[in-house]
Amino acid sequence: xxxxxxxxxRMTRTFAEHADAxxxxxxxxxxxxxxxxxxxxxxxxxWRRFDVVPEQALPWLLAxxxxxxxxxxxSMRRRERLIDRVAGLAATESQPAAPVDIDDEVWRALDQLxxxxxxxxxxxxxxxxSPAEGAQVxxxxxxxxxxxxxxxxxxxxGLLVGADGAPQIPNTGVATxxxx
Length: 180
Fold this sequence. Notes:
elongated
C-alpha cells in the first residue's frame, strides 16, 4: 500500500506542477475547445504508464500531449472529410428525396441526438426503410431500433417545440407507443 500511495502522491505533484504548461501547449496545438480533452488524455496516459514517466516529467508530458493532439487533429480532419462527403452525397440526384421537408432547425436538432438515435431516425424517415431493414443496417434487433426511434422522437420533441407549445416533429412513418 505505501508504494501505491507514493505513486499517487507523485502523480498528484506531477499534475499540480505541469497541468498548466500541458494545457498551454494543448491550446496551441488544438485550440481552446479541445485543450482540456488533450490535457485529461495526457495525464490519463501518464497515470497508466507512470512507471515510465521520468522524474523530470514535463518533456515526457509534452511529447505525450503532442501525440494526443495529433490524434485529435486527425479525428477532426476525418470528421470534416466525412461531413463534406455526406454533403456531396446529399447534393447528388441519386440521393432519395426526403419524405418530409427538413429545414435547418430540424438538422440542428438531429445533430444534438446521439449517433445511434440520429442514424435510426434518418434510416427510417429519410431513406424510408422499415424498422427491420433499419435494424439490419445498424446491426441491431428490431426492438433495439424501435427503442432508439422512441427515444429519438422524445428528444426531438423536447428540441423542436412550436410557438404554441406543440411539438413540430415530422412523421417518421413508424408507429410508437406515443404516436397515434
